[in-house]
Structure formats: structure tokens, C-alpha cells
Write a structure and sequence with these properties.
By secondary structure, the protein is mainly α. The chain is about 55% helix and about 5% strand. The chain has a domain of about 230 residues: Rossmann fold (3-Layer(aba) Sandwich). The longest helix has about 40 residues. It is globular, with a radius of gyration of 30 Å. This is Integral membrane protein.
């Protein structure tokens, strides 16, 4: 393996005198917090902390008294030196991050990319899975921009500004109905600034996060063969470095957005110029405009389909020409479309809707077909390597992709419905949004009815499970004076914690119903007139009334949902507690790199994982000491990902302690290709030792549950929670039910940490200054000594 450059390694070391050979006996505990974030003072239980390395965004801290611990190894014998890696500002440290809530559909479809079933063979099928998810992501970009075009171009500039009654009610649009801007083409050209600005904003947000995340290079390692199978891609050298793919996708999606705006602006002018008796020159320009649009769309599709992720090597070669030319060419075509639409046409008037109704229908149809094809590919992959623990039998990715499409539809339909209602006033003035959006709104009440039925079933199941857990709680605390209220509370917390395991069932049912209702809406919109009731009015009056009522309720709900969505984002911008809640959502949802959608919120792990690997590699290189990597909740996922990225010589000097960990319970089920049983078993084999703590009251953490003899060597067994049922000598006050928090307060934590430190090989010599680095050959390579018995 290639060596780490000495200058870089030196820059990562603490700014203090270098440790001497005696530092080899020093032990380090590197703490990684979980979702929601915390402060270094809370993690280290000391008000006086110093930053060892890092910046304001993410850094490693120590107690002030431990800043030079390596130079005083005698002061820390029998206990490790604690360090805290604080990464919460990567996701929730800035109030502007609340605006990322609007990018939720993009984040969800990006998650679908990583949910593919595990498959050691069938590389082409795996690539096809990734391609289909990228195409779904592309349709979401087009849908978002098309919704902006519907609001700005169709409802405001075309319908409202072309109607005298509407402009009298909304005086801010009056300048579009009189004077130089009154021709329809010029109105559309001016309104095109709104969706074009939205596309530019998405490009800017994606590009701004480039340097903060994708530019953080992981440890330099030797490239691996492209077809080399492995238990997980998380151990590959280029997994956490996706600059090239994100840059290509950003260029393609930005171009797709500009082309969508160009099509919306020019389509009305093309329809006008193709009328019988129109100018021959403009008719020729219309054909040229259509040809340019088709060519641009084909180039965008080629870029999206041409290349996926390259994880076996550090892919740092950027496609500079493509990244610049593709968005620039699409923007130039948009400029030509604006000029073409604004060309004077004396007899042109605006009436009805813009000729874009078919766009939303085509998008819904394409999304449905892509999701069905994705489900077929996922099923094929799952059959090749069945995993009974995989969520939805390998169909989690298609189900989540369907939810992303539904979220995109709700957001686009919601804003269109609300703006149409606002502009229309008392009604009857405007034709409103496309009929498909109205049909989609009419599907909201049936979907909510299904969700309510599921919630009722969950409540019933939880009540029954609480009754069963009551007897288990009484058996767990024998000899205690029984308190029925205390028992019911503990049993209720345990029953509620099991709801996490039912998430695959809930998402599967909701996704299937959403797909079915989407198909009904598409068929209804294709056979109906301007209103959903037109499709049923000729068959039965009751059916027509039911459809119309459902449409009215759904239109109100979809608009209310969008307003609630925006209000939540606004509150999060001002309220730190709400911003912290949204930060928790991003902690879970943005762990994965942007592989399917470049406008998704950035992946914080592309900064956090290299931070952790660099810290562990440079510290063990400098001291040769023992290191316990201690991760809670989402921090345990970061810790596992960092351990996979370590070179083998460093990995054998590291012990892993996880608690409240979702590694198998959530990540192993939803992301089997990367956190499945085989991947976690390989992690257990490659690091020196690993212990996992969990509680039955924890709704997130759980056992790793490795097969065979590995399970008892990793999982300690469920910790007692609460620690005491009633008042005892050790707990004179009532002990709290901790659930997912405060694992370090349990005596089992310190016990397991000490056993891990004792298990680590104490005879590993400290590396000399001339050591070539953590990637150099290890004296134990190939003939590692037999490991001592598991704790």
C-alpha cells in the first residue's frame, strides 16, 4: 500500500511536543456521538476542553488536563485517555440547513440507491439497479422545475395575467396585462426567471457543499480490481469520495432543469406558429427549437446513464468540459427560447392552460414504470442471495423510491393547488392547474384512510404486547414490591420500542397503495374532462359525487400539507429546538453519498469518516498505543464505516465498542448490500475485538446478531433498564428508564471498555519515526498470533 505523506500526517497531530517511545503504553478512547449532536463538555464530562485537531465544523476534543497525555503515560495507567469527535455541525449547526427540508424527495430517492439487495455476482444487474434509481432522481428534478413552471408561467403569467378579472384582484400582476409586457410570449419570457432561478439555486447549493464534503480525501490506499467481490463496499478506497459522479450528475440535472423551462416557455409559441396561415419563418424556427430540445434531452440522458459510482479507486479526475458545457448549453437554449417566445405575434392571445398538461402525466407514467422495473431488478438480486432479514424481501429500495415520487407529487401538486386557489379568489376565473394534479389530490383521502387503519392496527398491537411484557418485567425484577403503574410504564416503553421493527411493513403497504392510487389517478386524468367527476358523472351520480368530494378534501389537504411543510421549515429557521429535530432527520438520511441525486443534502460522512480514519491512523502511527473506538447510535455507524476504511495494520490495533447501535436493526435490514450479515461478520473478523450493548427499551439500537459463534462474542446481552425497579441502597431515588440514551451511565459500559483494552495486544511496539506509515506492512501480516479468548 502507498504510504501517507509525512506532511499531512504531521498536520493532523496535536500541536504539542511529540510523544516519546514511552507513549506506546497509552490507551485512547475515541468517542463518537449519535444523532442530535452534543457538546464536547458533555461527552467528556468536563467543562474545560481543548480542540486537538479539526475546525468549527467537526473536530476532536480532549479534556484540558489530557491535552499532553502522550508525554505523561504514567498518569493514565489503568484508564484510557478520552477524546470526543464532535460532528453535529455537519448536519444541524446552521439555521440555513432548515431550508434543506425542501430537498426531502431528493434525499429519499438517494437512499433508495443504497437499499439494493446484497449480491456478490451479477455486476450488470447491480449497475442496472443504480441506473434505474438515477433515472427516477432525474424525473424528480424535472417534476420540481415543471411545478415551478406551472405556477409562474401557466397560473400567473398565462392564465391570471391574461384575464382582466384576475389582474384587478392582484394588482401586482397588472403590469403584465397592459403595455409592453402584455403579449403572451413576453409574459412567459419574464415569468421564466422564476423556475430558471430555482434551477440555479439548486445548482449553487450543490456546488457550495462540494468543497466541504466531496473534496475531503480519505486515506490514500491502493486501488482494487474493479470486479473484486467483497463483503461490503464501505471498505473500498473510493467509497467516500464521489466528486466526479456528483459533478456529472449536477451538470446533467441542471441542464435538465433549464431544458424544462425552455420547453415550458417555447411550447406555447410553437403551438401558435404551427397554426394554419402562420409565418413560414417562425414555423421553421419551431421545428429547429423542438430538434434542439430533443437533442439536449438525449445528451442529458446519456450523461446520467453513462457512468455510475467508481468505488474501487480514488476517482479524482473531473470531467471539466462536460461540467461546464452541458449546463451552459442548456442555459443558452433557454435564452434562445425566451427570445423566440418574445418575438411579436400580433394576433396571439392567451386562453385555457399552457400546452403542458401532458408533461405531468408523462412524468407520473415514467416514474411508475421505473419503480416497477426497479422492483423487478431488486427481486432478481434478492433471489440470487436471499436474506431473510432484508426489509421487504429486498424491495425496500423500490418502495422508498415510490415514496420519493409521492413526496415530489405532493409538494408540486400542493404548491400548484394553493397558488391556483389564491389567484382564483372566488373561483371560476381561471382554468386552474392540470387535471392530473387535481386527480392526484383526490387520491389523498383514500391514502390517509389506509394510513389510519395501519395506525389503529399498530395501537392494538402495542396494547397487546404491553400486556405480554408486563409479565416479563415482573420476572426480571424478582423479590421487588410490585407497583402496577411502574410495571406498566416499563412494559409500555418496551412495547413502543418494537414499533421500529414494523417500519418495513408500514412503508411497504403505503408504497403499494401509493402506486395503485397513482395508476388510478393517471387513468382517471386521461379519460376525464376538466374535472375528476367528469369521468364518473356519466355512470352514476353517487360515484361522481364521491369523486368530487374526495377531490375537494384532497385539494385542501395537499395544500395544507405543503403549507405545514413550509411552516415547519420556517420555524426550524428561527427555533433551535426545531432545527435540532430536523438535524436528527438529516443525521439519519444524509449518511450516504449522493449517488442518485446531486441536489440531495450533502453527505456528512464524506467528511466524518475520513476525519476518524485519519485521526486513528496518525495516532497509532505516532504512539503504537491501544485504541477503543466508542460509538453511540449513529456514531456507531460512523465508527464501523471508519474501521472498514483503516489499513489492516491499524485495524488490528483498534477495538470497537458500540451501544444503542442501529447497525443491524436498521442499517442491516434496509441496506443489506453494505451492512448485511456478511459485512458485519467481516468487520468482526478484521478488527481486533468488538462488543455491542443494547437495551430492550431502545427503539433504535439492538443486537448485532451475527450467526454462529460470533453472536455471543459481540453482543453482551440486553442491559437491564431501568437499573433498579424500586428504591435501593445504590438507587435511593427512582431509576429512570433510559431507553436510547445514557449508555455510559450503565456500569456495563466501563466493564466492557476495560475488557476490550485488556484484550488488545499490549505487546504491539510503538512505531519509530522512520516507520513508513500505517499502510506499511505489519509484522503480523499473514501470520497473526492467535487471539485470546473472547471477553
Amino acid at each position: 500500500m502507498e504510504r501517507i505523506e509525512d506532511e499531512t500526517a504531521a498536520a493532523e497531530r496535536p500541536a504539542r511536543p511529540g510523544p516519546g517511545p514511552e507513549a506506546a503504553g497509552t490507551a485512547l478512547e475515541l468517542l463518537v456521538h449519535g444523532v442530535g449532536g452534543t457538546t464536547p463538555q458533555e461527552m467528556l464530562d468536563d467543562p474545560r476542553t481543548v480542540r486537538i485537531t479539526g475546525d468549527e465544523t467537526a473536530a476532536v476534543y480532549r479534556r484540558a488536563d489530557d491535552a499532553d497525555a502522550e508525554s505523561r503515560p504514567g498518569d493514565h495507567r489503568g484508564r484510557p485517555v478520552p477524546e470526543a469527535y464532535v460532528w453535529c455541525n455537519l448536519t444541524s449547526g446552521n439555521a440555513s440547513r432548515a431550508l434543506w427540508l425542501l430537498l426531502l424527495p431528493f434525499m429519499v430517492v438517494n437512499l433508495a440507491h443504497w437499499m439494493r439487495p446484497d449480491a456478490r455476482r451479477g455486476t450488470r444487474t447491480v449497475r442496472l439497479y443504480g441506473l434505474l434509481v438515477r433515472l427516477v432522481g432525474l424525473t424528480l428534478t424535472v417534476l420540481l422545475v415543471a411545478a415551478a413552471c406551472e405556477v409562474a408561467l401557466d397560473l400567473a403569467a398565462w392564465q391570471c395575467a391574461g384575464t382582466r378579472a384576475c389582474t384587478e384582484d392582484h394588482t401586482w400582476l397588472r403590469f403584465l396585462s397592459d403595455g409592453w409586457w402584455s403579449p403572451p410570449g413576453r409574459r412567459l419570457a419574464l415569468a421564466a426567471l422564476v423556475p430558471a432561478a430555482l434551477t440555479g439555486l439548486l445548482w449553487y447549493l450543490s456546488h457550495r457543499t462540494w468543497n466541504d464534503y466531496e473534496s475531503q480525501q480519505p486515506l490514500t490506499r491502493r486501488s482494487e480490481p474493479e470486479e473484486e467481490p467483497g463483503p461490503t463496499g464501505l471498505a473500498r478506497p473510493g467509497f467516500w469520495y464521489g466528486r466526479r459522479l456528483v459533478a456529472r450528475l449536477r451538470a446533467a440535472h441542471t441542464a435538465a432543469g433549464f431544458l424544462t423551462v425552455a420547453a415550458a416557455v417555447g411550447s406555447a409559441a410553437v403551438r401558435e406558429d404551427r397554426r394554419p396561415g402562420g409565418p413560414a419563418v417562425l414555423g421553421t424556427l419551431a421545428w429547429a427549437f423542438d430538434a434542439a430540445l430533443v437533442t439536449g434531452a438525449l445528451v442529458v440522458l446519456w450523461v446520467v446513464c453513462r457512468r455510475g459510482r467508481s468505488e474501487n479507486r480514488l476517482d479524482d479526475q473531473l470531467d471539466e468540459t462536460l461540467v461546464r458545457v452541458l449546463p451552459g448549453g442548456a442555459l443558452a437554449l433557454l435564452g434562445l427560447a425566451v427570445v423566440y417566445a418574445g418575438w411579436p405575434r400580433p394576433d396571439w392571445t392567451s386562453h385555457g392552460r399552457l400546452p403542458g398538461d401532458a408533461t405531468f402525466g408523462a412524468l407520473v407514467l415514467v416514474q411508475g414504470l421505473l419503480v416497477v422495473a426497479l422492483a423487478a431488478v431488486a427481486h432478481l438480486l434478492h433471489r440470487r442471495r436471499p436474506d431473510r432479514r432484508a426489509a421487504l424481501r429486498g424491495l425496500a429500495g423500490p418502495a422508498v423510491a415510490m415514496l420519493a415520487c409521492a413526496l415530489g407529487g405532493v409538494m408540486s401538486g400542493g404548491v400548484a393547488q394553493r397558488v391556483a386557489d389564491w389567484l382564483d379568489g372566488t373561483g371560476g376565473t381561471l382554468d386552474g392547474p392540470p387535471v392530473l394534479l387535481t386527480w392526484q389530490a383526490s387520491m389523498i383521502p383514500p391514502l390517509l384512510a389506509v394510513v389510519l387503519v395501519l395506525c389503529g392496527w399498530l395501537v392494538r398491537r402495542t396494547v397487546r404486547l404491553r400486556a405480554a411484557e408486563t409479565a416479563a418485567v415482573e420476572r426480571e425484577y424478582p423479590g421487588e414490591p410490585k407497583d402496577a403503574r411502574r410495571t406498566r410504564r416499563i412494559a409500555g416503553v418496551r412495547a413502543m420500542a418494537t414499533l421500529t421493527d414494523l417500519a418495513p411493513l408500514i412503508i411497504g403497504v403505503v408504497s403499494a397503495v401509493t402506486l395503485l392510487l397513482g395508476a388510478v389517478a393517471l387513468v382517471g386524468a386521461s379519460v376525464s374532462g376538466d374535472e375528476p367527476a367528469d369521468a364518473a358523472g356519466g355512470t352514476h351520480g353517487f360515484v361522481a359525487g364521491a369523486v368530487e368530494t374526495s377531490q375537494a378534501i384532497g385539494s385542501w389537504l395537499i395544500g395544507f400539507g405543503f403549507l405545514l411543510f413550509v411552516t415547519w421549515g420556517r420555524r426550524a429557521y428561527r427555533d433551535p429546538s426545531a432545527r435540532r429535530t430536523i438535524g436528527i432527520l438529516w443525521d439519519v438520511g444524509t449518511f450516504w453519498p449522493r449517488a442518485a441525486h446531486p441536489f440531495a443534502p450533502p453527505c456528512y460522512a464524506e467528511r466524518a469518516v475520513p476525519d476518524l480514519t485519519w485521526r486513528m491512523a496518525t495516532w497509532t502511527r505516532a504512539t503504537g498505543g491501544r485504541l477503543v473506538l466508542s460509538g453511540h447510535s449513529q456514531g456507531s455507524v460512523l465508527a464501523a464505516a471508519a474501521a472498514w476504511q483503516l489499513p489492516p495494520p491499524v485495524r488490528r490495533r483498534v477495538a470497537l465498542l458500540t451501544y444503542g447501535s442501529p447497525l443491524e436493526r436498521l442499517y442491516g435490514r434496509w441496506f443489506p448490500a453494505h451492512f448485511g450479515r456478511a459485512a458485519l461478520a467481516s468487520l468482526h473478523e478484521e478488527i481486533d475485538c468488538w462488543r455491542n450493548l443494547y437495551r430492550e427499551t431502545d427503539p433504535i439500537g439492538g443486537p448485532v446478531g451475527l450467526p454462529g459463534d460470533c453472536a455471543p462474542r459481540v453482543d453482551r446481552g440486553a442491559l437491564k433498564d431501568p437499573l433498579a425497579y424500586g428504591r435501593t441502597q445504590e438507587h435511593p431515588l427512582p431509576a429512570p428508564i433510559l431507553g436510547h440514551s445514557d449508555y455510559r451511565a450503565d456500569p456495563a459500559f466501563a466493564e466492557e471498555r476495560e475488557r476490550l483494552l485488556a484484550r488488545l495486544r499490549p505487546d504491539v511496539p510503538g512505531q519509530r519515526a522512520t516507520d513508513p506509515g500505517p499502510d506499511a506492512a505489519d509484522p503480523h501480516d499473514g501470520h497473526a498470533p492467535a487471539a485470546p479468548p473472547a471477553p
